[in-house]
Design goal:
The chain is mainly α and 238 residues long. The chain has eight helices and no strands. Its main location: membrane.
Length: 238
């Protein structure tokens, strides 16, 4: 009976980590595709130019693939070192996620202020050579969220040194519409619009976070159970 349970656990862990690995491959593939086709798309930060959607997806996909590979091979071979490595890496990531969430809520106001300052600084790079990713990202954000600037549409006045905004701020897009009357521009701040969108989708975000945490906990339990069983078997036959 115990042997049957361990066999089921072994196959379950292999299947779990195979899906984990395939998911990592998919995320990595999307990241590489974004990097090749869109450049540094979604890079809004001037102080962290490498923090783009493509780079984040590549990093996350690679980490998931490595962890999934360790768990899958460790389960197939019942290798104690691989199972232990899988457990330690997954536990480390789990604790880092918890610490990051706690720090975010503790320093939320400071993070808000820093993010707004950094985004305003990034506006100065809009439309400049070598910053196509940042320019495209701002155009998409302002068009999709129907907003203009970080905290106000007047943020752009400092960029252009004139009463002007990018054409993506216009209620109805047309070439050089950012030079028209301010009454034809979006005036809502993009920072608040994005925060409102996140708050509106908070339930879905928490469900995703809980599902991720549950998956990680199951992986920790399965790997440690198999590791302990492998130790018992080796001790028995020693």
């Amino acid at each position: 009976m115990a042997e049957g349970c361990m066999m089921a656990l072994r196959y379950g862990m292999v299947f779990f980590n195979l899906l984990f690995w395939l998911g990592g491959c998919g995320i990595l593939g999307v990241g590489i595709w974004l990097s090749v086709t869109q450049g540094n798309f979604a890079t809004l930060s001037s102080s962290l130019p490498s923090l783009s959607a493509a780079n984040l997806l590549i990093a996350v996909g690679t980490i998931i693939m490595v962890i999934g590979c360790l768990g899958c091979v460790g389960a197939v071979k019942e290798s104690r070192p691989l199972l232990l490595a899988f457990f330690i890496l997954l536990l480390l990531i789990f604790f880092l996620e918890i610490i990051s969430i706690m720090l975010f809520f503790i320093y939320q106001d400071e993070i808000d202020r820093y993010a707004q300052r950094d985004l305003k600084k990034g506006l100065q790079l809009f439309g400049t050579e070598g910053n196509v990713g940042l320019t495209n990202a701002w155009m998409i954000v302002q068009t999709d969220f129907r907003c203009c600037g970080v905290t106000n549409h007047t943020d752009w006045f400092e960029v252009y040194n004139a009463t002007r905004v990018p054409d993506s701020c216009c209620l109805e897009y047309s070439d050089n519409c950012g030079l028209d009357n301010p009454g034809t521009w979006w005036t809502a701040p993009c920072y608040e619009r994005v925060k409102d969108w996140l708050n509106d989708n908070l339930v879905a975000l928490w469900i995703f976070a809980l599902c991720t945490a549950l998956t990680q906990i199951l992986g920790l339990v399965f790997s440690m159970t198999m590791f302990c069983q492998a130790v018992k078997v080796e001790t028995f036959y020693a």
